[in-house]
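Colleagues,

For the teaching module next term, I've prepared a clean inverse folding example: a structure given as tokens, and then the sequence designed for it. I'd like students to try predicting residues themselves before seeing the answer, so please don't circulate the second half yet.
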């Protein structure tokens, strides 16, 4: 009978110890995860589709929702100067997939079309049939001949025509 009481006391002490250790482990695992959530960029006002995002309309906040998807912008530099494809609401995270680079070449404006082989370069005036950012392949109509050609938008605003 004496053995039985000692065994029950040991079991009670063992359960308390195990429960307290488990709670300490849970607290240790939860605190770094909450602190490691990071930051997110949110607008301070409504930003409409097609509008360029300025630094003055952005704010950086700490992320507290562990269920937040990872496609959101985490720094102001990542978002400023970009164009939004959808309406951005104040206090809501900005999805990187809803942003695009501003167009360098706009449809209907005049651009310089260039074609080069070796040391020879031919250039003409053209009218883009599509909007395009640096690196985009767009269709351009040669103003002099009326022919449409495909070319790559270059950083200087010209369209480099591809050889067939």
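(Answer key — instructors only)
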């Amino acid at each position: 009978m004496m053995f039985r009481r000692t065994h029950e006391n040991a079991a009670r002490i063992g359960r308390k110890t195990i429960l307290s250790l488990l709670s300490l482990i849970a607290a240790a695992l939860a605190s770094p995860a909450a602190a490691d959530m990071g930051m997110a960029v949110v607008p301070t006002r409504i930003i409409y589709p097609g509008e360029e995002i300025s630094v003055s309309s952005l704010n950086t906040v700490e992320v507290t929702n562990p269920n937040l998807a990872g496609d959101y912008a985490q720094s102001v530099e990542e978002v400023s100067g970009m164009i939004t494809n959808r309406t951005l609401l104040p206090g809501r995270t900005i999805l990187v997939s809803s942003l695009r680079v501003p167009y360098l070449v706009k449809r209907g404006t005049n651009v310089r079309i260039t074609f080069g082989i070796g040391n020879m370069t031919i250039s003409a005036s053209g009218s883009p049939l599509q909007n395009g950012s640096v690196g985009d392949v767009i269709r351009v109509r040669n103003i002099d001949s009326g022919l449409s050609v495909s070319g790559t938008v270059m950083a200087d605003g010209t369209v480099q025509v591809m050889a067939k």
